[in-house]
Structures are given as C-alpha cells and as structure tokens.
Amino acid sequence: MREVWAGGDAYEAYIGRRSRLVAGPFLDWLDAGPGRRWLDVGCGTGALTAAIVARAAPAGVVGVDPSEQHVAWAAANVAGARFVVGDADHLPSDPVDVVVSGLALNFMPDAGAAVRAMRDRGSTVAAYVWDYAGGMELLRRFWDAAIALDPDAAELDEATRFPICRPDRLRTIWRDAGLVDGATAPIDVPTVFGDFDDYWTPFLGGQGPAPGYVAGLDDRRRDRLRDRLRLDLPAANDGAIHLTARAWAVRGTME
Ligand SMILES: C[S@@+](CC[C@H](N)C(=O)[O-])C[C@H]1O[C@@H](n2cnc3c(N)ncnc32)[C@H](O)[C@@H]1O
Q1: pTM of the predicted model, to two decimals?
Q2: Which residue among 99, 101, 121, 224 is least enclosed by CB atoms within 10 Å?
Q3: What is the model's pLDDT at position 7?
Q4: What is the best residue among 103, 131, 136 to mutate for testing ligand 1's pocket, by most ligand atoms within 8 Å of CB?
C-alpha cells in the first residue's frame, strides 16, 4: 500500500503539528553538539529540519523527501535549510556528519537498506518512529475503533503494517547496519484536542494511512466510525481530549 503524502497543509493539520513536538526532545536526547552538518531523510514538511535549525546550531542542514509538495511546503516555511526532492535510495551528495529521520523510516520500502544508505553518508545515524502498537494514542484509538466496526481494517493498522516501530527491532536494524553505541528511548508528548472535531477533522484530509482509510468509507460507515470514536475518547468537562503520543527514538554511530 502506498501512502498519500501530497498536501503540506493537510499533513500539518493531521500529524505535522504533533511531530513538531517530538523533534525537540529527540534532538536533546541525541545531543549531537553544535557545528555539525545534518541530513534529514523523509523530511516531509520540515518538522525535524526546523528543529535542527532552531536548536542544534548546525553548520548546514539539508532535508530530502520524495514528495514534491512537501518539499515545496518546507522550502516556503522553513528558513536556514536546503530542501531537495529525493528518497533514501537517492540521497543528496552534500557532505554530512549526522543523518536523521523523523517518523519516516517505516514508510520506506526497505528500512534496513535505508539505514545502510544513511550510514554511508554520516557517522551518526538516528531516527524516531511512532509507537503505533501502544503509546501513539491518537492513532491507536482510531484503529481500535475502526477494527471494532470493521475487522478488515486490522490489515491497514500501522501497528500491523510497521513491526519495525518497536525498540528491539530498531536496535536490530541499527546493529545490522554496523552502527555501534546503539540506544533507544521513548519520547512522550502531550496531544491535546480542543474538542472532538479537533480530533476528527484531520482524519478527513486524506494524508497518511488512517485518513486514507476514512477516505475509502461511504458516508454511513464514516459516520459510524466518527460516532464510535466520539463515545470512546475521554473528553474532559470542557470537551477537551487529552492524549499522549509516544515515539521510539534510536541512535548509533560508525566505529
Ligand atoms: C509521516 S511523514 C514524516 C515527515 C517529517 N519527517 C515529520 O516528522 O513530520 C513521512 C515522510 O516519509 C516520506 N517518505 C516516504 N518514502 C520515503 C523514502 N523511500 N525515502 C525518504 N522519505 C520517504 C514521505 O514522503 C513523508 O514525507
């Protein structure tokens, strides 16, 4: 299944605004130091790239992504970095020290090959992916409700499709790529929705697996899913919905 990664605005409304929260704590954990040259693989709309510019005092930052629309969005909205269209198999040739990837590794056709390609470019390689099976609650709750109504949805659930999004699997991929000093860590960020519509509306934008699933439902099934989620989600007295999103981070270096 190929994902739709086309519109920067729709992606931002859906996950981009959440992924920005993870980028900062990830960079703090990575602690790569100032004056490094960075490459952000699968940069999308530039959530991680922007955080590198803002927090890591880099000597240079390049973001690469196969989505022309995401690259155009990033170039228009993120200052201090260069953005190019490409993928993990076709990385730009700029000299780099630190190669990172945010929430993208599981969408690459061969994550092991992608990490080896990243390793060939920089001495430090690090990434993070959502904990689809557990702590990424906004998606976990979506798929649990979708599967309760439609058992066939299970095969589209990112927890099923992306088994690499677990710390043991990430450590194995890093080790198999010859990266040492490997470590993983959870990064938890709050995801607060002002009301149910704030949670639900981004799922109507067609970006990524869950909104892609919603786009394929007829009106009746889409309304059933919406109503099920409205019942299931824990709303506070003011209607706000407080969830948590967990990402697993992994890092390693070449000897
Ligand atoms: C969930 S988005 C993450 C974007 C951004 N890094 C962030 O944290 O918000 C996943 C991104 O992976 C990109 N992608 C998909 N396949 C890829 C590949 N083979 N190589 C590099 N990037 C890829 C998509 O175009 C999309 O922008």
Answers
A1: 0.91
A2: 224
A3: 61
A4: 103
